[in-house]
Amino acid sequence: MTSIQKILHQELGVRKKVSRWIPHLLTEKQKTARVNWCQKRLTLAAWVFQGEEKPTKVIRSRSVPKKMVAIFVSKAGHIATIPLNEQRIVTADWYTTICLPKVITELRKINPERRIILHQDYASSHTAQKTRQYLTEENLELMDQLPYSPDLSCNDFFTFPKIKNRLRGQRFQSPEEAVDAFKNVVLDLPANEWNKCFENWFERWKCAKKI
Predict the structure, then answer these.
(1) CATH topology of domain 69-154+175-210
(2) InterPro entries of this UniProt entry (predicted)?
């Protein structure tokens, strides 16, 4: 052992250590998630002695009933919420014979001569020939929606997050009860909130234009 090694190891007590490589430096939140993930999987199986009862695990049913609704809003607030009562998907027939007529009726109660501009995405029920024909017959103007742009849709960046925050953690006895709660949250939103929503929407147009 050389003098330098003797000084380092015996007198100073230092040791040469090679750093351990890790792929990422995890945050505390990520470390907690890893622990929870491992604990969850460890509960799937356990060692037991002969004669002992095996552990039980309660599994919630995946067949949770759901209810789809169509919601229409304006700068003045909520216009209509229409649930799909007898079907699971939105079709052009349902959209033009049940949904849109209710929306138009509600709008024309306020002002029969008002100009109606409909903002919708490119779902098949919205772009079907039957729907386009109906919009033309009812003299509705159509505002298109850019694909993959939820930040330019009022429902995506405002309405749905508001509803989710209010209803998070609640349980309902029936789909109808859930729809009623959905409506109540929307109706409880004050007029100034809707006004801010649309003002924000218009500002987002300017930001997108600058980009």
Answers:
(1) Nucleotidyltransferase; domain 5 (3.30.420)
(2) RNaseH_sf (IPR036397), Transposase-MT_Hybrid (IPR052709)
